[in-house]
Amino acid sequence: MRIESKQIELFSKLARADFDRRAHAYLCAIETDWGGISAGALTAYIEHGVDHAASLAITAEVDVISYLELVLRLGPARWRSPEYAWIREYLREKHPANDRLSLVIERLRFDDRVSN
Prior knowledge:
Blueprint: H1 5-30, H2 39-55, H3 61-80, H4 85-90, H5 97-115
């Protein structure tokens, strides 16, 4: 059996659409209000976020979901703020994606515990 490049492209698009749909369902299930983001905006955010995650070598589905949730929980203002620049920098490191995400999440939890 020979798979044509057009078929591979179609399978890739279908897999991506399926992941985006499942990511949307998951994110809506764990949080009903992501800072007032509409369902349509959340869909666009997921599409952009998956692409950005890939640029950081975050490609396993579970890691991409963690990345999307992290950025959503921080919100756009904190994500872009200088105070949280260390997150963006660390996510560019060459360590395994799961390790990078776990460290960032644990540090944020620690910072939150210390500040409260």
